[in-house]
């Protein structure tokens, strides 16, 4: 699937650089996802092998013992491969008994009892990407089953859908079909069970059909790119593309930059700081795609950075994007630009990013959208450095990031 998804990434970059005056359509408005969801997903840990009760309960316990629950991580999401390969005689999805010896509902109940939430995964098409039953033609039935189990979160993938040639390949990129209608079918199915269970709806069609322009009338968040393939190139590809679509994201409907790979020994410590910091200020869902049993102390400290989590969870829900201080070089497509800023309810967040090599990055606050020529108090969230003045300057190693919160007076929050 990788080669096809690369094409999607290119299409997405093209769209992301188009004009930005698109009117947001009516929001889904199910009252969920007013700030980006925080949690964990099983996929990166061991793909199909981690779609089990053991991983779900173990992760829920880790959320508590590692202090992640207290910081807001709440969704324990099971991805592809949780069911058997065929439906039962009534057409219902069946939890694989070897992975769910007690069924799904008992696990959901236990996780709810721990003050946490539970998510599941499915697919628009006839099969999921790994070949398990999809929801095609069965959306209402599947929604009823999810609601009866008390599932809180549903990720809807885009494999095995009809293609121009009448086939249903694992991934069809034919322009003839627009994925929107398929995602609306599941939206309506979930809406019809809302009185039983209000379910968060995450769209996963890899940024097709400019999903950011209509995603918030369909779901609570939408993947805006091909997968994070657990390498620096993915972080760079996704992080750079996020700058062009920030205006479409807001409370109840957020661009989803895909799972975090902090703690998987795939990035340097600098890159892990950049990855977490950038996803957070872009108001992406913070869904951990890692194994909490083996995470290092350094990686754990990154995902537990309360100052950065608070920025991600700020009630305004407005993503940061790039700005260009006078005298700085122009952004380069596909590279993560050095200067980012976004509004907060009590200030402004500035991201300084050494995306292409070690750098000393300085910014005058008067160049920052939302700030003026006065003196401000600031705090950098990784180092804890604080100061007051008209500018900041940070020397950063290759692929590192500084996340600076500039506090403004209360009037600011009333003006944005
Ligand atoms: C992909 C999706 C991944 C993961 C995988 C499971 O399409 O982007 O996040 O869910 O399917 O098969």
Beta-strand percent range: 15-25%
Largest sheet: 8 strands, parallel
Low-confidence stretches: 1-24, 410-416
Strand order of the largest sheet: 7-6-5-4-3-2-1-8
Task: Find the count of extended strands (DSSP E, 2+ residues).
Answer: 16
Please give the count of helices: 12
* Backbone structural class: alpha/beta
Tell me the span between the first and last alpha carbons.
42 Å
The gross shape turns out to be globular
Specify the helix fraction band: 25-40%
Q: Overall pLDDT, averaged?
A: 93
The distinct bound ligands, ions and cofactors come out as: beta-D-galactopyranose
Provide the gyration radius in Å: 21 Å
Pattern of helices and strands: HEHHHEHEHEHEEHEHEHHEEEEEEEEH
Could you provide a short overview of the structure?
Belongs to the glycosyl hydrolase 27 family. This protein is α/β, with parallel strands linked by helices and 416 residues long.
What does this structure look like?
The protein is an alpha/beta fold and 416 residues long. 27% of the residues lie in helices and 18% in strands. The chain contains twelve helices and 16 strands. The protein has helices at residues 2-16, 43-46, 53-65, 68-71, 105-113, 139-149, 180-192, 232-242, 269-281, 297-303, 306-312, 411-415, and strands at residues 38-41, 75-77, 117-123, 153-157, 200-203, 221-223, 254-256, 286-288, 321-322, 339-344, 347-353, 359-364, 376-380, 386-389, 391-396, 401-407. The strands form three sheets. An eight-stranded parallel β-sheet has the order 7-6-5-4-3-2-1-8. It has a six-stranded antiparallel β-sheet with strand order 9-10-11-16-13-14. Strands 12-15 form a two-stranded antiparallel ribbon. β2, α5 and β3 (117-123) form a beta-alpha-beta unit. α1 (2-16) packs parallel to α8 and α6 (139-149) packs across α7. The longest helix has 15 residues, at 2-16. The chain is globular and about 70 Å long. The model is unreliable at 1-24 and 410-416 (pLDDT under 50). Residues 43, 79-80, 129-130, 157, 204, 227 line the site of beta-D-galactopyranose. Residues 1-19 form the signal peptide. This is Alpha-galactosidase.
């Amino acid at each position: 699937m990788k080669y096809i998804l690369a094409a999607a990434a290119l299409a997405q970059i093209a769209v992301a650089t188009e004009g930005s005056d698109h009117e947001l359509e009516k929001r889904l408005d199910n009252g969920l996802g007013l700030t980006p969801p925080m949690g964990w997903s099983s996929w990166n840990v061991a793909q199909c092998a981690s779609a089990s009760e053991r991983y779900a309960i173990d992760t829920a316990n880790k959320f508590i013992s590692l202090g992640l629950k207290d910081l807001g991580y709440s969704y324990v999401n099971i991805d592809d491969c949780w069911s058997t390969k065929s439906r039962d005689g009534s057409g219902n999805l069946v939890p694989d008994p070897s992975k769910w010896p007690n069924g799904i509902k008992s696990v959901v109940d236990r996780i709810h009892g721990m003050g946490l939430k539970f998510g599941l995964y499915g697919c628009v098409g006839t099969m999921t990407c790994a070949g398990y039953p999809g929801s095609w033609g069965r959306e209402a039935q599947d929604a009823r089953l999810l609601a009866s189990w008390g599932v809180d979160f549903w990720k809807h993938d885009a494999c095995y859908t009809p293609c121009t040639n009448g086939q249903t390949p694992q991934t069809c990129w034919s322009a003839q079909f627009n994925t929107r209608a398929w995602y609306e079918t599941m939206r309506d199915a979930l809406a019809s069970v809302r009185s039983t269970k209000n379910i968060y709806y995450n769209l996963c069609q890899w940024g097709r059909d400019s999903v950011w322009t209509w995603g918030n009338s369909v779901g609570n968040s939408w993947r805006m790119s091909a997968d994070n393939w657990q390498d620096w190139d993915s972080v760079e590809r996704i992080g750079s593309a996020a700058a062009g679509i920030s205006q479409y994201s807001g409370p109840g409907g957020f661009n989803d930059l895909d799972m975090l790979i902090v703690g998987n020994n795939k990035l340097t410590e600098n890159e892990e700081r950049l990855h977490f910091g950038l996803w957070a200020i872009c108001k992406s869902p913070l869904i951990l795609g890692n194994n909490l049993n083996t995470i290092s102390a350094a990686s754990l400290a990154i995902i537990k950075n309360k100052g950065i989590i608070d920025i991600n969870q700020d009630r305004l829900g407005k993503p940061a994007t790039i700005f260009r201080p006078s005298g700085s070089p122009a952004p380069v497509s596909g590279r993560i630009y050095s200067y980012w800023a976004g509004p907060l309810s009590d200030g402004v967040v500035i991201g300084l990013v050494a995306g292409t090599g070690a750098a000393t990055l300085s910014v005058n606050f008067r160049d920052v959208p939302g700030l003026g020529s006065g003196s401000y108090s600031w705090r950098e969230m990784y180092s804890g450095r604080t100061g007051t003045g008209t500018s900041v300057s940070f020397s950063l190693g290759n692929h590192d990031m500084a996340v600076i919160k500039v506090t403004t007076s209360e009037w600011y929050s009333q003006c944005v």
